[in-house]
Amino acid sequence: MKSYIVKILQSVYITHDVKCFIVEKPENYDFIPGQATEVAVNLPGWEDKLRPFTFTNLREQKHLEFMIKIYRDHEGVTNLLGKTNAGAELIIHEPFGAIQFKEPGVFIAAGAGITPFLSIFRDLYRKNQLYGNTLIYTNKTSDDVIMDIELRKLLKNNYLKVFTRENVIGFAGKRIDRNFLIDNIADFGQHFYVCGPDDFVKNTTKNLSELGVTSDFLIIEE
Ligand SMILES: Cc1cc2nc3c(=O)[nH]c(=O)nc-3n(C[C@H](O)[C@H](O)[C@H](O)COP(=O)(O)OP(=O)(O)OC[C@H]3O[C@@H](n4cnc5c(N)ncnc54)[C@H](O)[C@@H]3O)c2cc1C
To answer: What are the residue ranges spanned by the domains of the chain?
Structure first.
C-alpha cells in the first residue's frame, strides 16, 4: 500500500472534542469529495496504527484537511492526535471510499459523520450545484455540531438539526427514527446519503428501506 509522509501545517479545535488538521498534500495526490484515507501518526510505535479519516477540503486546494473527533477516554490514535500539532508528521495512504455525490437528495449525518458530506457540499457549492440537497444532522447537543455556521451558509433552509440530549428552542429534540423520517421527508424516491456511527447507519438505512428507498438510491460507506 502506497504511503506518504506529510507534515501538519496547522491544527485547531473546532468543537470541544473535534480537531481540524491542515496537512501537506503530496504531489499529484487527488481524491473524490466524500473519500477518506488511512492515517497514522509518524511516531515510533504508531506508524502502523492506521485509522480512516475523511478529507474535508476542496480537491483543488494545495493542502489536505481533516476534522477528527478526539476520543480522550482511551489511548487510541485520536487521543494521540489530540496532543499532536503543527510540525509533527502523519502518514497517509491512497484515498478510498464509497460515499460520493450521485444526484441531489437527502444527506443524513450523525456527529463526525458530517465530514464526507462537508466535502461534497463545499464542492457542489463551488460549482453552484448545491441547490436541491437537504441535510439532516444529528448530534447529542448543540456543542457537538461541526461547522454549523458554514453549513447554514451553504444549505440555508435545507438544513435541519436534531439534538438527542437537549431541547433547544426552535429545533427538534429527538432521534432520527422511522416517525421522524415520515414527518420530515416528503419524497422517498430520491437519493439518500447516510454517514455516522455503525449503529446509526444500520438503523437509518433499515428505516429508509422500509419506507421504500431502494439500495441503488442509498449511498453509505461499505
Ligand atoms: C471511512 C471512514 C471515514 C472516517 N472519517 C472520519 C472523519 O473524517 N473524522 C472522524 O472524526 N472520524 C472518522 N471516522 C471514524 C474514525 O476512523 C474513528 O473514530 C477512529 O478510527 C478512532 O480511532 P482511535 O484509535 O482513537 O479509537 P479506536 O481504538 O479505534 O476505537 C474506536 C471506537 O471505540 C471506542 N473505544 C475503543 N476502545 C475503547 C476503550 N478502551 N475505552 C473507551 N472507548 C473505546 C471509542 O470510543 C471509539 O468509538 C471514519 C471512519 C471510517 C470507516
So the answer is: 3-93, 105-219
**How many of the other CB atoms lie within 10 Å of CB of 222?**
6
Q: What is the mean pLDDT of residues 73-82?
A: 97
Which CATH architecture is the domain 105-219 placed in?
3-Layer(aba) Sandwich (3.40)
Mean pLDDT across 88-93: 98
Ligand 1 atom, smallest distance to 76 CA: 25
Closest CA to 142 of 13, 18, 15, 12: 15
Q: Which three cell numbers stand for residue 139?
A: 448530534
CATH architecture of the domain formed by 3-93: Beta Barrel (2.40)
Residue 14, all three cell numbers: 473546532
pLDDT (tens digit per residue) in 96-137: 998 999 999 999 999 999 999 999 999 999 999 999 999 999
- Rounded to an integer, what distance in angstroms lies between the CA atom of residue 81 and that of residue 70? 7
Lining residues, ligand 1, CB within 6 Å: 36, 51-54, 66-69, 71, 73-74, 76-79, 97, 112, 115, 221
pLDDT of 31 reads 97
| Residue closest by Cα to atom 48 of ligand 1 | 71
Mutate to test the pocket of ligand 1, among 22, 31, 71 (most ligand atoms within 8 A of CB): 71
**pTM of the entire structure?**
0.94
Q: How confident is the model at residue 70 (pLDDT cuts 50, 70, 90)?
A: very high
Q: 186 CA to middle of ligand 1, Å?
A: 34
